[in-house]
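Let us work through a complete example step by step.
Step 1: write down the sequence.
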Amino acid sequence: MSSFFYSPRGRGAGGVPFRKRKSRFTFDEVQLLLNEVRNNRHIVIGKFNRGVSADVKKRTWAEITARINEISECPREIIEIIKKWSDLKCDTKRKVAAMRAGLGGASSALRISRDLSPVENMVHEILQLPRGTTGPVATRGAGPAWGRAGGGERGRRR
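Step 2: predict the structure and record it as tokens.
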């Protein structure tokens, strides 16, 4: 009979250490991330920004990470914050593209914004802003959703 035992050194001969998964991003963390990305969008959005060096971009992401870690339950790394923004952006773009395809070319900005979740709506607005626009994110219909204590991202699994 085989037995299972836990080894803090990990399993297998390679000795890969066991890592506990970090908790999901809270609504407050996501909201802060989106506000910071909006305020620094001229630096962090886009791969090849004119006049923005890679060092400035790295420092900006480090500052955003530090602000998120001030309110976070568990410390986040820079790469996690960048990946979270990338995932939010990708998911929103995919959903908007599917909506536009489903509408048969008669895309209505009002319908799209109505059918998106508050987080997706904020991401969509950030991506639609003209260059150089900054300031806090103000979304239609997102008021009570952000005030929920202990709320998740509408049941989305990551």
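Step 3: interpret the result. The longest helix spans residues 78-102.
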